[in-house]
Specification:
Helix 2 crosses helix 7. It is globular and about 35 Å long. The protein has a five-stranded parallel sheet, with helices on both faces. It has one domain: 5'-nuclease (Rossmann fold), CATH 3.40.50. The chain is α/β, with parallel strands linked by helices. It is 55% helix and 12% strand. The C terminus is likely disordered.
Length: 148
């Protein structure tokens, strides 16, 4: 399964935000075991560094960005992605950018703690706990009851 991780999930792991970091860490561990492939966007990495450097310092934030550059698929945000995002009905342009990037890359799902903000997504949307349940059960990514 190929999933696009929203920046809130990445920040949960970097900042070890309670209680969410446990699910974020478990997702990253599943990816390290080869159970799923994680993607993120250039925008999310920039936001991760920006927020992370204020909380954990520039060196730790940069090290995390480097780690993700090495192991994640990085989705580029170009003019067409921005045009596609602008055409989406959602009010949050940043969320629309993630949806447009996910659609272009044909990922299986977007993983976010704010699933309600992605209700208009044509891509499946899972909260971290739901993704972990699906990985444990071995269920297909398009099974009924998804967050989309």
């Amino acid at each position: 399964m190929r999933v696009l991780l929203d920046v809130n999930v990445l920040l949960d792991a970097l900042l070890q935000r309670l209680p969410w970091h446990m699910e974020a860490d478990a997702i990253l561990q599943a990816a390290a075991r080869g159970e799923l492939t994680c993607a993120t966007t250039t925008l999310s990495l920039a936001n991760l560094f920006y927020v992370g450097r204020k909380a954990v310092g520039a060196a730790a934030a940069r090290a995390t960005v480097r780690k993700y550059l090495g192991v994640f698929t990085i989705l580029v945000i170009d003019k067409q992605t921005l045009l596609d995002a602008d055409a989406l009905p959602g009010r949050d342009f940043e969320d629309n950018i993630l949806i447009a990037a996910a659609a272009t890359a044909a990922v299986d799902a977007i993983v976010t703690r704010n699933a309600a903000d992605f209700a208009h997504s044509p891509i499946l949307v899972f909260e971290p706990a739901e993704l972990l349940r699906r990985l444990q059960s071995g269920g297909p990514p398009s099974a009924a009851g998804s967050g989309s």
